[in-house]
């Protein structure tokens, strides 16, 4: 089965930047980033199709975050710029190995592989 390992989290001041990485041990079709803050629901941040490179973003991060992939390294990144305190959360990498018709990319249940999570903290 696919193993996902996140790296690159940490603490940053508002307006700063971080880049998260997610390395996959096997084939993936869709890779996505989710986040969950204490007391809140898990929400989709962005997703990418590893084959085509097609990307989708949550409205809350459009223009600030960029998801990309390096297929040679089997790794997906999210570059997070202009960070805000409300971006503070545990960030999770997720993946599937096929497309899902009629199911939103931002539905956590559609992904069967998950990383352990990595903390991002943005101070004001």
List the defining traits of the structure above.
124 residues, seven-stranded mixed beta sheet, mainly beta, four-stranded antiparallel beta sheet, single chain, globular
Describe the 3D structure.
A hairpin with a 4-residue loop joins strand 7 and strand 8. The protein has 124 residues and is an all-beta fold. It contains no helices and 11 strands. The model has no long low-confidence stretch (mean pLDDT 96). The radius of gyration is 13 Å and the shape is globular. Helix content is 0%, strand content 48%. The strands form 2 sheets. Strands 2, 4, 5, 6, 9, 10 and 11 form a 7-stranded mixed β-sheet that branches.
Q: What Rg is obtained from the alpha carbons, in whole angstroms?
A: 13 Å
Contiguous uncertain segments of 5+ residues: none
Order of H and E elements: EEEEEEEEEEE
Largest sheet: 7 strands, mixed
Shape: globular
Global structural class: mainly beta
What proportion strand? over 45%
Helical fraction equals under 10%
For the secondary structure, the number of strands is: 11
Mean pLDDT: 96
Termini distance? 40 Å
- Output the number of helix runs: 0
